[in-house]
Amino acid sequence: MKRGEFRGFAGRYPFxxxxxxxxxxxxxxxxEILLWLxxxxxxxxxxxxxxxxxxxxxxxADPSARHDPLRIRVSDxxxxxxxxxxxxxxxxxxxKGDGQGPAAGFLFPKPRDFTRALFKFGSTSAxxxxxxxxxLRTINRGLHGTAMPGWSxxxxxxxxxxxxxxxxxxENWRDSAPPxxxxxxxxxxxxxxxxxxxxxxxxxxxxxxxxxxxWSCHPAYVSEERxxxxxxxxxxxxxxxxxxxxxxxxxxQWGQEIPPADFPRVKLKSVDNLQDLYRVIMxxxxxxxxxxxxxxxxxxEIWALTLYVDSIRKGGSTHPGRK
Length: 323
Ligand code: HEC
Ligand code: HEC
Description:
Bound molecules: heme C
CATH topology of the domain at 194-313: Cytochrome Bc1 Complex, Chain D, domain 2
Shape: elongated
Number of helices: 10
Order of helices and strands: HHHHHHHHEEHH
Distance between the termini: 47 Å
CATH class of the domain at 194-313: Mainly Alpha
Strand order of the largest sheet: 1-2
Strand content: under 5%
């Protein structure tokens, strides 16, 4: 770090600064150069003396470099995924993939620990291994509203290599395979017909508040009075909870308290479009309280929920406590 800062300083003001200032980086640089020369030639001599055996541990990261001492210093570059991981991901996810990078202590939620092979977002049922394309989607787009950036500017081949590197951190990927993805049902509501979309949103509101009681974790988006009335009409006891307009934080499997999304107020982490919203409702969010709804609800109900959540996400909340 320090070395980089000094170089930048000297590079940015090569002529304009008084000599005294430029002398600082120069003084620091020369012993460094000496150290590098020592390291390179000294190391090379030592290796020569030991017939290439002495540095074996150092070179393990790149097996193809075993018999080529000159490649020791660039062993990182052997696997494009590993090199990219160290450069872009390790600061948060840790060199060992354990989620303990130097930045991790400052972040909420914490960066994923890849050694557990437990992921949040996928097209397989929550808690099971995701597909490669799910990991690729997350890497490409990032997770909105969290510290996890999107990496769409990296070449596609590097993004694919990163998926391989991440999977390399856990034995689970060798011992088991992801299950079949959740089914993708066609949206039964014609989106070009406003009356049909309105019908879906009304049905979705009912599924959200009565059939699935999503408000037991997420907020309710109708008044308490209206909620109780809807529950009775749906043949359920009129039991609400206090603070219906607030979300109830729930513990996750990494020891954090995660707030269920308040749809009009937060960016949904994995959602860019309706298909994404459908997927996360169907599959759930692994390692958190957000369950998979695939088996509990009919395809039409899931799509109605998708269109309803999308409508409140875009500002259609009717909760009286909201502005
Ligand atoms: C600035 C910090 C940061 C950097 C850099 C970062 N991540 Fe993340 N990453 C996170 C956080 C935080 C999460 C967890 C978000 C959550 O739990 O909601 C995460 C989650 C993930 C997940 C898990 C998604 C899931 O479904 O559970 C993957 C995969 C991932 N990151 C890959 C990468 C890769 C690959 C890189 C490097 C190209 C990278 N990350 C760089 C912070 C970071
Ligand atoms: C038992 C608690 C619980 C219930 C019930 C629940 N959720 Fe969630 N939900 C959560 C939690 C916790 C999260 C946050 C996960 C995270 O951000 O890591 C979440 C997140 C979400 C997200 C955001 C996904 C994203 O990409 O950020 C959607 C959409 C969602 N839930 C929809 C629903 C719907 C629709 C229902 C009812 C059918 C429902 N949830 C019921 C706990 C719950």
